Amino acid sequence: MAAVSLLVLVGAVVLAVSFRYFYRRELLPWLPPNTSLVSWRLDGLERAPQALFDFWRYGDSGYRRKKIIALTFDDGPYPLYTPLLLDILKHYKVKATFFVVGIHVREFPALARQIVADGHEIANHTNRHRRERDLSQEELREEVLGCEQAILDVTGQRPRCFRPAGGNLSDEGIQTIQNLGYTSCNATVNPGDWWQRDPDKLIEWSFHGRSREGVTLMHSGALGIVRALPGYINSLRAKGFEFVTLSELAHDIGQPLPELPKRTHIAEPSKAGPNPGLGSPIPEADDEYAP
């Protein structure tokens, strides 16, 4: 009886470890803007059993897939933390994606140009960091186009990725963004760097939800991630990860990002609404990334 119990226990442990491995591997690298982190993880639970079953039948065809992750930084550029982040990324030879706010790009143009000069990808995070729930669809369109024009005027580049302020978009908002030619990209790894100040905790939590491919949410105005970033980079490299931009990640998973359509005129965006100050905006209760 004891031998049978031990055998069952060993079998359960092996099954649990195998299931956890395939669950993490089957998590999609993209988190759609209308999908919560809970739904995204539930989707992984649904796919993991079939992946485990296929492994038993056919072998692990995806075992040799590259482990890649895109570091993304929201809300900047900022005059203090963005230069520190850029120095760290340059030291460790890591390319990242910066989701910038249009008014900050115009206020700190040298930093926006430095992001591009260092080989990082620059992306659209609205003109004034206004959440869709506070806007009409026309105002949302103005927010996106205002940021796009600021990036184009300052850096000469046109971004291809968009991330909504607060992480949420309605079905209407998703359609508005798609009509403008953007690819919406939220994140799959959320360490909560806007409030967590302990670098060790940030590094530990940065692994939650990580799969073989992933997108990490960080902020250009958070001191915590500046302190934790070297350790985080080294920890991921030790686990065999390579760092890529969002465009490179999209290409590697077979979903290359389309170029933006050419626009003949972009209207001056509305200046209504609060002016986001320096430092990352504190998430509100119904934000996608609120703790």
Please name the defining characteristics of this protein.
291 residues, alpha/beta, TIM Barrel, 5-stranded parallel sheet, two-stranded parallel sheet, 7 strands, 45% helix, globular
Taking all Cα atoms into account, the compactness measure Rg is 20 Å
The share of residues in extended strands comes to: 5-15%
Q: What is the CATH architecture descriptor of the domain at 67-252?
A: Alpha-Beta Barrel
What structural class do helix, strand and pairing data support? Answer: alpha/beta
On the 0 to 100 scale, the average pLDDT is 80
CATH H-level homologous superfamily name of the domain at 67-252: Glycoside hydrolase/deacetylase
What is the count of DSSP helices, taking H or I runs of 4+ residues?
A: 10
The CATH topology of the domain at 67-252 is given as: TIM Barrel
- List low-pLDDT spans: none
Written as H for each helix and E for each strand, in order along the chain, the element string is HHEHEHHEHEHEHEHEH
Q: Please identify the top-level CATH class of the domain at 67-252.
A: Alpha Beta
Q: What gross morphology would you assign?
A: globular
Instruction: Report the span from N to C terminus.
Output: 47 Å
Helix residue percentage? 40-55%
Tell me about the largest β-sheet: 5 strands, parallel
By DSSP, the count of extended strands is 7
